[in-house]
Design a protein that fits this description.
Pfam families: HpcH_HpaI (PF03328). The protein is an alpha/beta fold and 256 residues long. It is built from 13 helices and 8 strands. 47% of the residues are buried. It binds 3-hydroxypyruvic acid (3PY) and magnesium ion.
């Protein structure tokens, strides 16, 4: 069995996740083997489809770490399918109201919290569950549901979103949030107003007993966020790892 994300959060206090857009299982496995605590497969802006998610989760499991899936906007059916395939957590973008959060929780949690439909064949194997009832008893608590907060509406509705049963965590999208706060003026995750709003979201979600995730574009940003108390920090993306690794090796090779 592969540890769940919530087990890692309990054991380590915080985790660093890789972020993978390329729909090739070997890329996800390689990122996991590079030392990330977990790997997120992105279907919103990344190129993943249901089949590459199924293969990617398997490849990440082979490396012994949990996989998380970011689904496309409003695709709660995919959230359910990703959990069935063995995702340890779901990140749902653009959750802007209690109604959005309720729809997300309905798809990701079994009764009495939601209406997740039964069919966790692969998930049971990855979790090492001894049978259907064992999986059913643990699933609502062992798989995490992240609501992305990245619009003005979401910031305004934060308390109602946090109050929805089954929403275990929020994940701040700092780029979209900065575009929203500046009313389309810029995309700048490190903008002072953006960071101030994010810190307020962090404090309020923690006060409500929820985990908080954040996206970091650089290692230095990730270090800053871990220091500020974010629980789940996603760092860079596969394309960035490739570009940065290649640039650094080329610079070495061409150094005078
Ligand atoms: C954002 O910054 O808007 C994100 O969605 C990060 O993944
Ligand atoms: Mg976003």
């Amino acid at each position: 069995p592969v540890p769940s994300l919530i087990a890692l959060l309990r054991a380590r206090g915080s985790v660093l996740s890789s972020w993978i857009a390329m729909p090739e299982p070997l890329v996800a496995e390689s990122a996991a083997r590079a030392g990330f605590d977990c790997v997120t497969l992105d279907m919103q802006h990344g190129l993943h489809d249901p089949v590459s998610i199924m293969r990617g989760i398997g490849a990440v499991a082979l490396a012994g770490v949990p996989a998380i899936v970011r689904v496309p906007v409003g695709d709660f059916a995919m959230a359910s399918r990703a959990l069935d395939m063995g995702a340890s957590a779901i990140i749902a973008p653009m959750i802007n109201s209690a109604a959005d959060a309720e729809a997300l929780a309905r798809a990701t949690k079994y009764p009495p919290i939601g209406e997740r439909s039964w069919g966790p064949v692969r998930a049971m194997q990855i979790a090492g569950a001894t049978g259907g009832n064992a999986y059913l008893q643990g699933a609502n608590a062992e798989t995490l549901t992240f609501a992305m907060i990245e619009t003005r509406a979401a910031v305004a509705a934060l308390d109602e979103i946090l109050a929805v049963p089954g929403i275990d965590a929020i994940f701040i999208g700092p780029s979209d949030l900065s575009i929203a706060l500046s009313r389309g003026g810029h995309v700048d995750p490190m903008d002072a107003e953006n960071q101030a709003v994010a810190s307020d979201l962090l404090a309020r979600a923690h006060a409500a007993g929820k985990y908080v995730g954040m996206f970091a574009l650089t290692g230095a940003q990730a270090k800053l966020y871990l220091g500020l108390g974010y629980d789940f920090v996603a760092l860079g993306s596969d394309d960035m790892y490739l570009q940065a690794g290649a640039a650094s090796m080329l610079a070495e090779a061409r150094a005078k």
